[in-house]
Amino acid sequence: MSFKDWITYVIEKMVWFMETPKKDRKAMKYASREPWAYRWFGMIPMSMKIAAKKVRKR
């Protein structure tokens, strides 16, 4: 990547950042992120959570 390409990329990101409202940027950040337990341990926490809900219902 040349210096000119890099500058163009950085300027595009800065313009996008300045044009989007803060609450939209924050919403996009948290909407695409799954909980840390699922990221770190996979499906095991989710299956334990579902099993605990079933036990509590009884």
Summary keywords:
58 residues; mainly alpha
Secondary structure layout plus pairing:
Elements: H1 3-19, H2 22-31, H3 36-41, H4 44-57
Structure notes:
- The protein has 58 residues and is mainly alpha-helical.
- It has one domain.
- 81% of the residues lie in helices and 0% in strands.
- The longest helix has 17 residues, at 3-19.
Spans where pLDDT lies below 50 across 5 or more residues: none
> Which range does the strand content fall in?
under 5%
The general outline is: elongated
The structural class is mainly alpha
Fraction of helical residues: over 70%
Q: Would you report the number of β strands?
A: 0
> What's the end-to-end separation, in Å?
60 Å
Compute the number of structural domains.
Answer: 1
Task: Please state the CA-atom Rg, rounded to the nearest Å.
Answer: 20 Å
* Major β-sheet annotation: none
- The tally of helices reads 4
Average pLDDT reading = 86
Order of helices and strands: HHHH
In short:
This protein has helices at 3-19, 22-31, 36-41, 44-57. It is mainly α and 58 residues long.
